[in-house]
Write a structure and sequence with these properties.
Layout lengths: L12 H26 L20 H15 L5 H12 L6 E2 L3 H4 L4 E2 L6 H7 L11 H16 L10
Antiparallel strand pairs: 1-2
């Protein structure tokens, strides 16, 4: 390339590159922290920080409370099995409702964290939990009770059930 056509760097371009690189690194470090502090499966409206049983009022707490109830009732299942199915079924939204599948077409849509239909929820409801299908702990516990009866455990469920 002829000397006249060569690109010339200004003295402060190295400083600018360094600041941009440092700023990018800081943004990468800050973004996960921002997401981690604002992400929650619980609705963003004013909700209690804990459940009546003292667990955090979020997906982690709901699963842990359900597991405690399940242990008392000898219903098999693990945190990972429940979490995997909740994320697949409702993305962690306790108010989720499916209005398009075959159950919905029959007038009995799937509801809640683990997308349970009313007849299944009623049949597999676990004593000591709410009778509200949208209650996260009641929904998880009833769904796990159903999965245990049908598949041996929620851990054995890897698709729609």
């Amino acid at each position: 390339m002829p000397a006249a056509a060569q690109h010339r760097r200004t003295r402060n371009s190295r400083l600018v590159r360094t600041l941009v690189a440092a700023g990018t690194g800081a943004a990468v470090l800050v973004l996960p922290l921002i997401g981690a502090t604002t992400a929650s499966a619980a609705p963003s409206s004013a909700t209690a920080a804990t459940t009546p049983a003292g667990y955090p009022n979020n997906l982690d707490g709901w699963i842990r409370e359900s597991l405690a109830i399940m242990a008392e009732k000898k219903i098999p299942g693990t945190y990972n099995g429940i979490y995997r199915n909740v994320i697949r079924e409702s993305s962690g939204n306790p108010a989720a409702i499916n209005l398009w599948d075959s159950n919905a077409a029959k007038g009995i849509p799937s509801k809640g964290l683990l997308q349970v239909i009313d007849p299944t929820f009623n049949a597999y409801h676990v004593a000591g939990t709410s009778f509200d299908i949208y209650d996260p702990v009641a929904n998880i516990t009833a769904a796990c009770n159903y999965a245990a009866a049908r598949y041996g455990s929620i851990d054995n469920v890897f698709g729609a059930y």
